[in-house]
Write the structure tokens for this entry.
Amino acid sequence: MKSETFSQSDPKRKILYFLKVMRQAGLKDLSKVMKISRMGVHKHLSDLQDRGLVESIEIRKGVGRPIMQYSLTSNGKTAFPKSYGEIATHALDYLEKKMGKGAVESVLRERQKELFEKYSIRLKDMKFNERVKELARIRDEEGYIAESKKDGKNNSHTLLEYNCPIIMIAEKHWEACSIETELFEHVLDANVEVTHRAAKGDSICKFLIKEKGNFL
């Protein structure tokens, strides 16, 4: 999210992140997650609506007053980190035009090496389950709004990313996604299957992760 718009501690930032993940929520849900009164939440929502980042709709469920639900506007959805996507995309497009697709992949793989070194330091000496959790934390810090969930039945994990900072690049240069998956496989020493991709129109990026040698 743009740092010049909201600080890390601003409640409005948390509301935007929650709506990004849940896609739609009412005052009751937002009040619970924010741990403040509904009146307080409503005040923040009004400000976000004035900024054009949040919109509301009335939903009727039988008899009684309609329930107000809130969601992000198109401007609200683009308020999240995009890693200088437009500039980076233009640079890669220019590189491809002048030097070919192989040059683009070389640049992306150099970035992969840098991230591998960075991630490896954080994951060093951790067991598999801990590595997956820590990877989710790292990705969350990088703006992907990430979380991991464990399937106790087969010791597999799901990595969910609700925001894609590199989506502008990934939509034009599919190599970015495949190289990212390879990065996860190498740093986790795991088998990684991609089931959902934001660059392909899905609302999230979803990765199924299994430790190598675990075929249950």
In short: The chain has nine helices and seven strands. The beta strands are 25-26, 54-59, 67-72, 146-151, 156-161, 190-196, 205-211. The first helix runs from residue 11 to 22. The chain has two domains: 11-77, 85-211.
